[in-house]
């Protein structure tokens, strides 16, 4: 177990590079299972979610080789085979990706077994849409004491699906299952995040026929065979925004090489309204604190093209430094403000409310979830000891400790490795004052 001893008060300044998106790369790896020939995926970061999927694919006979520092993966699905349940179970709780193996494994083997899912604990995170989607395609689903077993004795057939909420994972489930299902699929209520569009681009390279219409409708014409792809993963817009929030919270200046403007429009608008400085270039984006007061804001998280929920937690640290009262209404997850307790211990003034404090009532409004935050600022932050709760909440704690006066001890930093590549090297390169302690 490693922890960080952080001496705060140093503005983070310099350059970091972001590589392929955590929320695309593991899914692109799963898509390789659908091909009859090897796939080549570039711009792959060294993060835990990639190793988890590498292991899971390996258990199913897919060879995954990595070409050193360039981050190029070659995935060869020519010997796909059923994995032992016990080996798969060893990955229970590691990430949310295993559920996406179902469609490709059902096509390849006629059956699939997946472990209990992991991912950040920021809400209940049910998988009812996924299971319903798979049943619609003709899969038999059996919940076991641990994990889920599926079979498709009569193959998978195209279906009409209407998602009650534009779920990213359920949309990907449909895409990864429908492309090789027999006949046509119509998906209504689809999510349209940039990572989904990149997955669609990959599937099209493999030979799939997918039409994205307006109003969240996606049509897929099933094809009997797909081939391997060659693709460079789109950059990680969540990591890019996290560094932007780090620059603002610490009074620093960070150039994020690889950050792509088109995928970050909602974040960039919010950042500018807050008073953050931006210099948008082809090679990346410079995020900086221009001096003076930051402005309080009302932010509502939403599905794309709205303000992404995964941007919320790091940005809240910057909002503690804005002059006045800010409101953040979290409409994607019911329980994503637990990280604010540590910020309050550090001196922040954040109150949580059950009501929808935004312009649109959300799914959580009439229920018992503390899903709106009122943040009064500016509040100087002082150091404390923190145990990281989840990926983005953890990054926000790191930023807060970097901004705070004094020495903080931060434990649980393994969680950060799920989505931030080489983050301690990057922090060191930005001038952060910290020691890595191994226990
Ligand atoms: C690995 C990955 O890509 N993770 C991202 C993905 O998560 P993930 O794909 O898990 O998120 P979803 O878009 O599916 O979840 C959105 C909402 O739908 C609900 N829901 C979802 C599925 C289901 O079967 N039933 C159900 O009720 C969830 O509880 C949540 O309230 O999109 C989220 C929303 O942009 C991001 O925060 C995550 O970083
Ligand atoms: C919620 C997140 O990821 P996951 O779905 O993998 O838990 C995230 O990346 O912030």
Helix content: 25-40%
Shape: globular
What does the main sheet amount to?
A: 4 strands, mixed
Strand order of the largest sheet: 21-22-1-23
Strand % is 15-25%
What does this structure look like?
The protein is α+β, with helices and mostly antiparallel strands and 439 residues long. 28% of the residues lie in helices and 24% in strands. It is built from 13 helices and 23 strands. The strands form six sheets. A four-stranded mixed β-sheet has the order 21-22-1-23, covered by helices on one side. Bound molecules: uridine-diphosphate-N-acetylglucosamine and phosphoenolpyruvate.
Short description:
The chain is an alpha+beta fold and 439 residues long. It contains 13 helices and 23 strands.
Fold blueprint:
Elements: E1 2-7, E2 13-17, H1 25-31, E3 39-42, H2 48-59, E4 63-67, E5 72-76, H3 85-89, H4 102-109, E6 111-114, H5 128-136, E7 140-143, E8 148-151, E9 160-162, H6 168-178, E10 184-188, H7 194-205, E11 209-212, E12 217-221, E13 230-232, H8 237-249, E14 253-257, H9 265-274, E15 277-280, E16 284-288, E17 298-300, H10 309-319, E18 324-329, H11 340-345, E19 349-353, E20 372-377, E21 385-387, H12 391-403, E22 407-411, H13 423-429, E23 433-438
Parallel strand pairs: 2-14, 3-13, 9-10, 17-18, 21-22
Antiparallel strand pairs: 1-22, 1-23, 3-5, 4-5, 6-8, 7-8, 10-12, 11-12, 14-16, 15-16, 18-20, 19-20
Helix pairs in contact: 1-2, 4-6, 5-6, 6-7, 8-10, 8-12, 10-12
The protein binds uridine-diphosphate-N-acetylglucosamine (UD1) and phosphoenolpyruvate.
Pathway: Cell wall biogenesis; peptidoglycan biosynthesis
GO molecular function: UDP-N-acetylglucosamine 1-carboxyvinyltransferase activity
Active site: 120 (proton donor)
